[in-house]
């Protein structure tokens, strides 16, 4: 541990909001590091300098000692430099790994044959950056499969370096559905030179290397993004083949619920929405709702119930339940939908056809649009997340803050953040259903629509949710406590 009580942390991530984001990993990397920085810890974040990163409003400077470097990865000599940008919003320094050969691609992720190299290089550059800056991290914080090889590299390629003698690794599983599995032909690209025995030998024999599994086996501590998900992934139903390894590490696996960056997501200050509002005056929310309806071409007035949805359109998010339930429900009940997302083509086609069938009641924007995401949170009455699994989920946390009642499946972070409404006591913050089936989802939407008809009760539920605090001040402190428990060990 450092001599002062401030920690040295190196955090490596594939996504960081707002620079490069496909989902919640970006929000969490950004907000957790901002929190750590604000608490005075020396946090050095490394992420790829993707060509999509918008350079306007960013003062990007080359880091002196970190220019025109070469890293030998298997047979490849990969050239890179590291630049730095100080984020204007909070003064947090971000280190950007500039390597056009690897990161000038149409998207953040690719399905090209060198995908593994892109993240091997990120992981190794994070370690070599510390070496060149003579920065001894108390904690190396890895996130998801992309940086899950860092514990392996610390034990092999860099084990000679005393700089890391006191370093402990923390690996956060944001989503076990993405493991980074590659054919074992890439083993040479790991440059382990004799350290291959650290790899999972049965996997190797069967011709594959699983990056996330390596992190699960070798990181000093594992975390995931909610207490319920920490339990769930130890079961075959949710573990996606890794549950046995996670059960084996249950004493070093912790669930810490994500927080919300209330500087970005707060209806009282949100500069992206048509009008701000608070729980003491909902007039701004009504204005947001009418603007959202106009924007999406939805019919009706302020009393028309609107259910929102903003998501990557992938199986995890429960869209197949929507496919079987929403057309029927639209015929049975009066409500409208505000939908935003992109992803698997068959899901995009489903929302497009739903919209074609009921243009005045279904607004769907295909694509990624941060402003519209804020509008939907602010202007909808309810927000649906019928996820098959949900490690944490951020949109239900945003919804609670915006007085938009979450309708969620009782799983992962959804179960940990939404409380079932009790009508008689006027307690609770949303509607939860347990089983992943049509009947459960149908029941939950119908129940929310019934509750909506009792407006005094509805407003009480809105206020209950808006009063909840999922700030990083609280959640980030749990990470610091964990880091400290490790760095003393
Ligand atoms: P996941 O990480 O599984 O995608 P989360 O709920 O943790 O799910 O985080 C999703 C984040 O991505 C939220 O901030 C959400 O608003 C944002 N998001 C997802 N899809 C879109 C989209 N199409 N446009 C704008 N923001 C989106
Ligand atoms: C993941 C999960 C989501 C979580 C996010 C950030 O992609 O699907 O539930 O909120 O990571 O941790």
Summarize this structure as a short list of keywords or feature phrases.
2 domains; 6-stranded parallel β-sheet; single chain; Rossmann fold; 18 strands; binds adenosine-5'-diphosphate; alpha/beta; 10-stranded mixed β-sheet; 489 residues; binds alpha-D-glucopyranose; 37% helix
Protein described:
The protein is α/β, with parallel strands linked by helices. The protein has 2 domains: 8-259 and 473-487, Glycogen Phosphorylase B (Rossmann fold); 283-469, 3-Layer(aba) Sandwich (Rossmann fold), CATH 3.40.50. The chain is 37% helix and 19% strand. The protein is built from 18 helices and 18 strands. It has helices at residues 24-38, 100-103, 115-133, 150-155, 201-205, 211-218, 227-232, 236-239, 243-248, 283-296, 319-332, 345-357, 370-379, 395-401, 412-417, 438-453, 455-466, 472-487; strands at residues 8-12, 42-48, 60-62, 69-73, 76-86, 93-98, 139-143, 168-173, 181-183, 208-210, 221-224, 253-255, 306-313, 336-343, 362-366, 382-385, 405-409, 431-433. Strands 1, 2, 3, 4, 5, 6, 7, 8, 11 and 12 form a 10-stranded mixed β-sheet that branches. It is globular. The N and C termini lie close together (9 Å). Residues 23-25, 28, 174-175, 225, 258, 390-394, 413 line the site of alpha-D-glucopyranose.
């Amino acid at each position: 541990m450092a001599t002062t009580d401030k920690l040295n942390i190196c955090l490596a991530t594939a996504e960081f909001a707002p620079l490069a984001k496909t989902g919640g990993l970006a929000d969490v990397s950004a907000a957790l590091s901002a929190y750590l920085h604000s608490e005075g810890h020396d946090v050095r974040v490394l992420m790829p300098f993707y060509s999509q990163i918008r350079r306007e409003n960013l003062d990007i400077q080359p880091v002196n000692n970190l220019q025109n470097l070469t890293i030998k990865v298997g047979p490849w000599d990969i050239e890179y430099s590291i630049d730095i940008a100080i984020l204007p919003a909070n003064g947090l320094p971000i280190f950007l790994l500039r390597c056009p050969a690897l990161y000038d691609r149409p998207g953040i992720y690719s399905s090209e044959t060198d995908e593994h190299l892109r993240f091997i290089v990120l992981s190794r550059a994070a370690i070599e950056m510390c070496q060149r800056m003579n920065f001894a991290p108390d904690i190396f914080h890895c996130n998801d499969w992309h940086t899950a090889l860092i514990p392996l590299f610390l034990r092999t390629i860099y084990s000679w370096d005393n700089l890391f003698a006191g370093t402990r690794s923390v690996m956060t599983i944001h989503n076990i559905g993405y493991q980074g599995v590659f054919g074992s032909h890439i083993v040479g690209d790991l440059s382990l030179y004799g350290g291959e025995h650290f790899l999972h030998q049965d996997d190797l024999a069967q011709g594959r290397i699983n990056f996330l599994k390596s992190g699960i086996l070798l990181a000093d501590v594992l975390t995931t993004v909610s207490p319920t998900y920490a339990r769930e992934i130890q079961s075959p139903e949710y573990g996606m083949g890794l549950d046995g390894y996670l059960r084996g590490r249950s004493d070093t696996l912790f669930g810490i619920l994500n927080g919300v960056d209330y500087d970005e997501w707060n209806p009282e200050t949100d500069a992206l929405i048509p009008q701000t509002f608070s729980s003491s005056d909902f007039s701004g929310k009504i204005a947001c709702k009418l603007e959202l309806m106009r924007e999406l071409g939805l019919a009706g007035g302020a009393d028309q119930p609107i259910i929102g949805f903003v998501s990557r359109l992938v199986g995890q998010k429960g869209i197949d339940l929507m496919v079987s339930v929403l057309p029927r429900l639209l015929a049975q009940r009066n409500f409208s939908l505000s939908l935003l997302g992109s992803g698997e083509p068959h899901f995009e086609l489903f929302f497009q056809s739903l919209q074609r069938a009921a243009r005045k009641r279904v607004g769907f924007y295909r694509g990624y649009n941060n402003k519209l995401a804020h509008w939907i949170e602010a202007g909808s009455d309810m927000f649906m997340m019928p996820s098959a699994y949900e490690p944490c989920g951020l949109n239900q946390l945003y919804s609670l803050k915006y007085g938009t009642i979450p309708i969620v499946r009782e799983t992962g972070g959804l179960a940990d953040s939404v409380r079932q409404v009790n009508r008689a006591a006027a307690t609770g913050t949303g509607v939860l259903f347990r089983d992943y089936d049509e009947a459960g989802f149908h029941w939950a939407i119908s129940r929310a629509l019934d509750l909506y008809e009792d407006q005094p009760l509805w407003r009480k539920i809105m206020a209950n949710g808006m009063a909840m605090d999922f700030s990083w001040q609280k959640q980030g402190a749990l990470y610091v406590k964990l880091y400290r428990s490790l760095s003393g060990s």
